[in-house]
């Protein structure tokens, strides 16, 4: 019964951190207006999109909701903006070769150097 409350508490802490970061950036812009210009904001946003494949708004929405929010994906497949996070399973490649009477599979290609054709 405590798991939902713990999850909620973590989301609140994330929101509090996010609000403090945004407030800190807003305070810094008042001290030095030469650093934060529309051009620098545009370049920073472009850098975020290039590196993360998400807009700054997507990153903010993901932090607040705890889900995977992506405007670019939504425009491609017309699905919802925010979706539950999915874990990617990356399987190691398997190399299979025909041997006497059966097929054997290995983690590395041709481990014994028999130069046999790979079985798909």
Features of this protein?
120 residues, mainly alpha, 2 domains, three-stranded antiparallel beta sheet, two-stranded antiparallel sheet, 5 strands, 12% strand, elongated, disordered N terminus, Lipoprotein
Summarize the SSE layout with pairings:
Blueprint: H1 3-31, H2 38-52, H3 56-65, E1 68-69, H4 71-77, E2 82-83, E3 95-98, E4 103-106, E5 118-119
Antiparallel strand pairs: 1-2, 3-4, 3-5
Helix pairs in contact: 1-3
Organism: Pacificispira spongiicola
Protein name: Lipoprotein
Number of strands: 5
Rg measurement, Å: 24 Å
Structural shape? elongated
Instruction: List the quaternary state of the chains.
Output: single chain
Distance between the termini: 48 Å
| Average pLDDT rating | 76
Helicity range: 40-55%
Largest sheet: 3 strands, antiparallel
Main β-sheet, spatial strand arrangement: 4-3-5
How big a fraction of the residues is strand? Answer: 5-15%
The poorly predicted ranges are 1-13
Protein name: Lipoprotein
Describe the model.
By secondary structure, the chain is mainly alpha-helical. The chain folds into two domains: 3-83, no CATH class; 90-120, no CATH class. The chain is 51% helix and 12% strand. Strand 3 (95-98) and strand 4 (103-106) form a beta hairpin. Residues 1-13 have low confidence and may be disordered.
Concise account of the structure shown:
It comes from Pacificispira spongiicola. With 120 residues, this protein is mainly alpha-helical.
């Amino acid at each position: 019964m405590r798991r939902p409350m713990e999850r909620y508490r973590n989301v609140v802490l994330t929101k509090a951190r996010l609000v403090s970061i945004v407030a800190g950036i807003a305070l810094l812009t008042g001290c030095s207006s030469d650093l934060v210009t529309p051009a620098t904001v545009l370049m920073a946003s472009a850098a975020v999109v290039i590196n993360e494949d998400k807009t700054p708004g997507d990153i903010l929405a993901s932090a607040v909701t705890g889900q995977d929010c992506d405007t670019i994906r939504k425009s491609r497949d017309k699905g919802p903006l925010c979706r539950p996070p999915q874990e990617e399973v990356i399987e190691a490649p398997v190399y299979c070769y025909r041997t006497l009477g059966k097929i054997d599979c290995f983690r590395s290609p041709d481990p014994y150097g028999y130069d046999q054709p790979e079985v798909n």
